[in-house]
Fold these 3 entries.
Entry 1:
Amino acid sequence: MKKLTAILLILCTLLALAGCGGAPRADSLVVDTCILMEADENMINNYSLLAVNPEAPFVDADGNAVTDVAVNTVGAAALINWLLSEEGEAAAAEYGFAEYGEHLFYLKEDRPISTAEIPAATEETKLIRLSTTTSVNDSGLLGFLLPLFTEKYGYEVDVYSTGTGKAISNAKMGNADLILVHSRSDEEAFVEDGFSYVIEGMDSARLNYMYNYFVLCGPSDDPAGVREAASVLDAFRAIAEGKYRFISRGDASGTHKKELKLWPEELGITAEAESFAPYADWYVSANAGMGACLVMAEEMHAYILTDKATFLTFVANGGVL
Amino acid sequence: MRIDAFSRTYEGRCVLRVPDLDLADGAVTAVIGANGSGKTTLARVLAGVEPPDRRGWRRPEQDVGYLPQKPYAFRMSTEKNLLLGGKDPARAAQLMEALDLRALARQSARRLSGGETAKMALARLLMRDFKLLILDEPTASMDRDAALAAEDLIRVCRDRTGCTVLLITHSLRQARRVSDRILFLHKGKLLEQGPTEELLRSPAQPETKSFLDFCGV
Amino acid sequence: MSSSIQKAIELILSADRELLNILSTTARLSLTSSVIALLLGVPLGLLLGGCRFRGRGILLVLNRTLMGMPPVVCGLLFYLLFSGVGPFRHMRLLFTVELMILAQVVLITPIVTGNMETAAAGIAPALRETALGLGLGRGRRLLLLIRECAYPILTAYLLAFARAIAEVGAVAMVGGAIAWKTNVMTTAIMQYTNRGNFSLGIALGLILMLLSLIVNAALSLLQRRLGT
């Protein structure tokens, strides 16, 4: 019996060591990838809040209409109102400054501001289901903001974080009370299809209040000369022409959609695999989360489009998230 | 003891057909025959393990003790196995003594050899008094001494309780030693029956004779 | 090279609250689902293996089919059924540990049943004819069958627990990996790996294997005791 335990323990240790050997060596303290271009108008990443409409045209898996879908409108409105209140917005803007010396999120000039009274949680309205993207979640913003809200008003916020597409479809299946995403086209479609509505005190369903920048990162030696490029579009052209390695999210996320818009049109790069097959020698479609892609970029000395908050977190943690 | 006629068909083939027959009460009746002649089937149907073809058929006796060809040893000591058959520890000790199992009393019954298991199973069955005892080749795995001890035990049991014994055996010598009457089965049919010595000395049917010759008796 | 083991030890020693929550959720999920699967699967398997009745063959085939159900398919099924637009939406069970337990029970019980059926079918005929021959009644025979199958029962539980703790397809879909609520070790490992944090993923993996090892060892000891 003791022998068996010993053998099993040794096996585990060996497996672990083997696993370590196989894992990308991304825990070096110094990360070579750095920001080469930012603050270009084409690279603004807008975050919006949308409350899910209880009267939305929900359909089940077979396509039949479903009417009595439970949506916690009171809770969702409470959270939205708090996030858009002076207190909530200030906290969001504050986030990260102390740690990274930079603002990770900026507030829009024309943002909606809420002065509404926020009701305390009741047994029925306590649970708020928030559907969001991995980028938002991984930046740590929600982990920082939400406790301030839940402690003050007694709500419970379940954060379902996944890719943009799945986050939105999750809401369409009636599994979320509000969504926080950063993909304008998807947001507008969501509203048009009737899945969102204008909560009391607001002017529109799509509440775009916060933004940050995407940044174009790459190896410090910058072979494509991105630093000297006049605009991000020129930078992308330079990368394509020089066939320098580029890591794409490839997962229909907000980041991915933004990236697709920045390539020169004649290349014809879209989300479809056939469109970028001819460029397979330098264009890597990873179909992975932001963190995993950053690790790949670091390993392969490649260029990558990422949001600044995630990148700063990545560097601060020595190349991991 | 009256046994009503019955037959047993298995997977479309009739493996046994017996007519009405009388089993002598209190006697030891041996059942002999070649492999596949239906001996075990006879035992199983009479014991109630297998049903005959006719639904309304009734067993000659309900209080039946049956020892299968390959008895199951439960995951417990030999002694505890015996106590499954009956509650009396003194009787268990007696039986184990008679079959030379005392040394193995505490040992796990799963670890017994073939012969030891057979002895244990017989002792276990004899823990209770049944009106009809059906034993399917009880001594097949035993060595000579053990087999003789077993035969003695069976005889003693029968003398004490007056139970009827049906003994399936492939050993004609055993039949001669122990039984009062013999039933000879051939290809699923009861071909001949009679008092032991008579049948063995002068069998009526030619098939019986060939079988006896084949066994060298 | 040993950074992952270092990290694992650091994690455990730091008693990070989120990690403790993940561990306790995992324990709650795996222990509950494996025990329920055992309570359902053992009698079912024993009955299926020990008794002969019409329709037994069909039930066996059904069980074998269920045994092979991919976890992610099971997860998808439950997601659709309990979704906000699904037929069971009023039960409000999506993204709860309770539903994760249910999904796992559906996945694991056929395995336990199948194991027990094989074990019972192996010994039931011989046990039956011996016990019948001794004049033992039906109830006694069933009790003896259960007792004889004690070793396979424990093995079946080991299998059930191992499957429960390693499963990720169903629990990810049905639970949503919501932090502090339905995040278990396997989904946490997936999340960290997606973020590129492989070291933490491996560290969690080591803890998971250690957990599994401890339970396995405890059960082995127990079954040793029962064997004698």
Entry 2:
Amino acid sequence: MMDRSYKELLKMRRFPHTWCPGCGIGSVLKNVAMVMKELGWNDKNTVAVSGIGCSGRMSSYMNLDAVHTPHGRALTAAETIKAVRSDLNVVVLSGDGDLGSIGGNHLLHTSRRNPDITVFCNDNEIYGLTGGQAGPTTPQGTKTITSPRGEPYLPLRLGRILTQQAPYFYARTTVYHLNHFKTCIREALLWKGFSFVDIISDCIELNGRRLGFKTAHQMFKWFDERFHIVEGVRDHLQEDELGIAKREVEEVSRPKEEAKAKVEVAVAAEQLKPFTLDELQTFDGTEGKPIYVAYKGKVYDLSKSPLFQGEKRMRCHIAGKDLTKDIDVAPHGDDLIFKFPLVGRLK
Amino acid sequence: MKQLISGNDAIFEGAFRAGATYFAGYPISPTSEILQRAALRSEEDSKFRFLQAEDEIAAAIATISASLAGAKAFTATSGPGFSLMQEALGWGHVVEAPCVFVNSMRVGPSTGMPTQPAQSDLLQIKAGSAGDYYPIAFYPHSVEECFRLTVTAFNAAEESLSPVILLADAFLSHLYELVDLEKIKTEIVPRSKGPLGKGQRLFTGTAHDKIGNVKTSDPVIYREWLGELKDRHFRVAEKYPLFEYLPSKDSNILLIAFGITSRIISALKERFSIFRPIRIYPVLEKELKEVTQSYPRIIVIEGSDAQYASWVEWAIGRKVMKVPCLGGGFKLKWIQSQIEDRLRGEGR
């Protein structure tokens, strides 16, 4: 006998529900409730949040305190509830249009701030409630009522976006691969931090029939052809892979080699060519001559400096002069001048 | 102890006095200081939570959600940000989330003149979001009043179970005055709504019946619900019939002004009678009728193109003269000359 105690988490008095026969949302709702029941999550310790759309109706069928936000704002609401009430488990149940399109900015920023919430995205690649318009995840070339010649743009790749953050938890699964689906739900609920489950789901009435499928089952078989499960934990998932990509901490990037401190090159004064101030003045960069300047009794060749660029003057410094006083009051240090070759000394 | 503080500081301290434990905001002139103070307070006080959101949409949604989760919450913004918050404002009325939205007005539309004061968001507080709703809005005119009215706004929010709007303007936000906050006595209404995690309620922006079942095609339930909302808001608003009336013996001319313009024209109180509404919405209908009875001539001076004047005309049922101070041009001399023009029958 199957354990049906998960029904305590569903508002069975409100059934039959509003979704079409064959829709994947029922499966999402049921399996999330089953895993939550196994983990002991209930109306005393859990809040469900959802946005707008067919999938947004999920929270209203949960026997929990549920928050049904305006379109796209489920993540912000969930994050805030977790911030104010850290003792509650917060679950977001919403769709791809709500989370990826109108709530796209919140997806970027909430995942960046990494609150301990779990997001279940019913990704049916279509706007179902409004009649089957192309959504952000609709594959390129798919015919919908707002893309009658086929969707012209590439879809939003939620996996690629979310796995660029650190830390992250991104799982892709389908409503067809049931065992894998439940594993993903369990792992996501137990993950400490922002976890996102991208559930590839079917919308037979408003998407599948237009694609040529006759039943929801045919769509499930199509999912089976399109995707395959990969074992173990990955860093990233390819577009045809189902699995879990996660990382707890940011990959430590190698520290940059510290720039060597530029100091004055120690050269015996006798080895350097002596210049008088008058001689120095002739080397001002005009007529192809090099640019020499003096600093603390030494002469440097600044011809390669990008800031002089053949001009006699670079902002406040003049070529062919003793710049000792200039450098002392300049906003930069003397390391800038030590970068250049030492060519002589002042007499 | 007297302190030299700004209107923004007073608003933040008022919210803190009222028991606010959550602030969400997005930087915008002229209320960024409230955001900064909230950030500092969250460092000092672990009970105070703060979010610098990615935009005003998120800030407003976070404010409402924090309120549902059980915190007294508020947010602060200016005209353009307030436009983005309209969605959440409507949602807050439907899910009955008590919280406070501070809108310090600057010259609009759009980015407008970010550092210049205006009073042109009055219609936006009432009609910015979709559908019918009845927000309560207060408008102080001094730093001390900013403090007092913030507390009042939180109390009215708890009583009306809805977002309450505290208006200010760019001038008032950055006006510094000596105030002794400790000596100001306030009454604070405690939290009445149960926090999340206490049952099986549904907080939805969709039309719903009393137990939270979504009802999207039942006019009877909708009318009942909206009627209750309206009753509740007007009942709470009646508890706060805030206004200031300075009659002048020799004058049969009444000036109506609020916020910073009332502050400026207070120099004319010997020559004219002055009426200053503090509760901006719902409009002080009864009070306006009573006060304006004995005045044949009424001039409304405000920082918008006759937004409040139209409400006054609606409330008292006759025409008034208007002095719109547009583009942040709040100069006493100019206002005086405009008043003289109106009295001679010139201008609009």
Entry 3:
Amino acid sequence: MTGTQVGVRILLGNPLTLMGAAGVVFLSVVATLAPFLAPHSVSVHDLTSTLGNALVSPSWTHPFGTDWHGSDIFSKVIMGTRISLAIGLSASLVSMFIGLLVGVLSGYFGGWVDSILMRFTDVVLAFPSLLLTILIAASLGPGLMSIFLALTVSGWAGNARMVRSLVLTLREQEFVMAAVGAGARPGRIIAYHILPNCLSTLIVLFTMRVGITILSEASLNFLGLGAPAQAPSWGVMVFYGMDHVTRAPWCSIWPATAIAFTVLCFNFLGDGLRDALDPKMRDVL
Amino acid sequence: MSDSTGKSDGKLLDVKDLKIYYPIHAGVFLKKVGDVKAVDGVSFTVKEGETLGLVGESGCGKTTVGKGIMRLVDVTSGTIDFTTKAGETIDVVPLDRGSMRPIRAEVQMIYQDPFSSLNPRWSVGDIIAEPLGVHMPELSGKERDDKVAWLLEKVGLRGEQAGRYPHEFSGGQRQRVGIARALATAPRLVLADEPVSALDVSIQAQVVNLMQDLQEEFGLTYLFIAHDLSVVEHISHRIAVMYLGNLVEIGPAREVYSNPIHPYTRALISAVPLPEPSMGRPDRQRLVGEVPSPLNKPSGCPFRTRCPLAVESCAGDLPPLIEVAPDRQVACPVVAGDSASGA
């Protein structure tokens, strides 16, 4: 049995991983087919026809109830999959990538490269991320692009710090020394020795970041820095729903459940991936 | 094993006045505030086919000497002349990474910790093949696999174990993998950095014997770095003793062991555990005090702060290695005179 086959078996053998993988596939399908799956329109132009339906409790026509505009929450949750997944994944991926690049360069090469990159990172970390976000939104105008940029710019620095400390410990390991002693080039050492050993931490970090990013996207939207208040974003829905939480708790509960479900799915999938990629776990089978 | 090999006097490695300082930076602007003098003017030669044992307690700089020869750390000053297969003598200190690469095929290292010296995410086959990939990229996949299997068998493992991962092996087996990796490019000089200190005593003997067998079979030259004198005595032809960044004594293994001259060597050898402790040891010497910090070394002889024989003049200049017998040098003017006059 090859390593890949064993890895696949670990991935499929764990029910939680399987659930996570299925959930991520499910969310992707929902996001792709959202306009066809949503039973009601969530367009702002239809407000006049739906205002009479404001804050209706869940029923057969509105399984998740309606919000204070009378929009169908079930449809909005379905449509919201798009925004949340798009922002959550893209901002996490890009900030992960930048953090990885900066952290590896800084940790591996040290010296003045490290000094310059880390001082820059410190500045970003020290700057209040909300202020940074407002600055970005103010210069670009509110919208999803601002949210994406803001979350990326404020997210990479923490990742860079984490990766750097990992690389610093790995660099002192004797197998890295052995590779240098064998005459391997730095690029090769980073690609084949450093990065594979960062993998498990990176996966956990990424799945955590997806969750954090989806929640931050929600809070930025709430401040009016992202999508308009009526946009089908889970974060917006949770926050605006809080105004009516005593009368109509469903306004917040369903989008919040969707956020929790998404974050859980990514975490389960991440845990499974981490195990499947670790040679040590292959014995357990 | 401690008698002369009878091979040619050809020096494979000639280290002269090697200094390796680690600068200490402090403050916001990382100003240099001092140096850790890990290796402070060490000179020795290693002849082709012999094993030179480099001993000393932890922190004396013996591992740093090995890393300096491998150019794994920056050398502050000195020369490291290595004689290549082609017969050229090259000083490796000024070489950059690219021109160092061909030398690396001929100088390989066995690392101290069999747990951290093997990448946990690589199969042992890939680990052993790594130097092959760097130095013999022309090998086909099949040739490389064959070579790996052959190397595994040479170190007492089985060829089909190439697909296994390091965590599936015991410490001794991992160290065998490390040895196979060091031998992959058919090196002439192997630096063994405490290769058995992390292993159980019973396994130590196996690994040391394996190294001796390999030396005979491939005509290897070893620089065997260790703190365990009994292991070193067993494998070495000559022994060099280090204290706080300097060599204090160098000579044929049997003579250094049976008749240590330098006060530090005497204390070190009298500290070797006896197989029969009840027999007692009349000349037991205990050292008092701590090893001084290499950041702030004593003037003159580095050992004078703990030396039972220290006199005032020891605080002057660093004592040079004095030849007291053929192939036998001691860095102590106080005792060297006695020995040379036959005391």
